[in-house]
Amino acid sequence: MGTVAWLVLGALSGWIANRLMGKSSSSGLIDNIIVGIIGSFIGGFVFNFFGAQTITGLNAYSVFVAVVGACILLWVINQIRR
Question: How far is CA 20 from CA 25, 37, 48, in A?
Answer without folding.
Answer: 12, 17, 23
